[in-house]
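User: Hey, quick favor. My workstation is busy. Could you predict this chain's structure for me?
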Amino acid sequence: MNRILVIEDEPEIQELLTAYLRSEGYAVTLAGDGVSALDKFRSVPCNLVLLDIMLPKIDGFGVCELIRKESDVPIIMLTALDEEADQLRGFALKIDDYITKPFSIPVLLQKIAAVLRRSSHVTESDLIHCQNLVLNTESRECYAEGLRIDLTKREFDLLFELAKVPGRVLTRETLLNRVWGYDFFGDCRIVDSHIKNLRKKLPDHLIETIRGVGYRVPKSN
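Assistant: No problem, here it is.
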């Protein structure tokens, strides 16, 4: 079942969207302001975000920008703003579609279905299989033992670097350069910190520490 995160501050529209989305078989998570929207996004995995622009605390553009730093999840903007500049700003932030209020429910449902179809088009070349782990490099989603694991951008990038060369040990310096970039002047211990966070989310022993060298993901048996 696809889950949609509806970020909308008007209760009447929340109720309307929830009723129609559930009638179409979608699960729904609601958020009424920008801050709670980001909390919900990070705690409840979703397949699509339906995002209003005019929100309390953090507006939709701000929410979109922060989500895009962590995920490529499809985003449809839903707003009363119909100026071309606002639409272009949304697309510059890599939204997938845009619909203005007042809107047609059938049209919105068709847009949602179309965006989900595009985002779910995955080829085997987009997938990395390692141990009981699957990484979708197109959607930047991670699944372990069949369950989706919510990762930050850095966590996904670190895991990707390790999983694409199973059995090979990567040093902290190598991971730092590949994930943070050669112009990063921070301490290598930032790698250890992110590995620690990854281990809390992933099955035991998926990432091995090779003392004095670095980290690796073991080859599949």
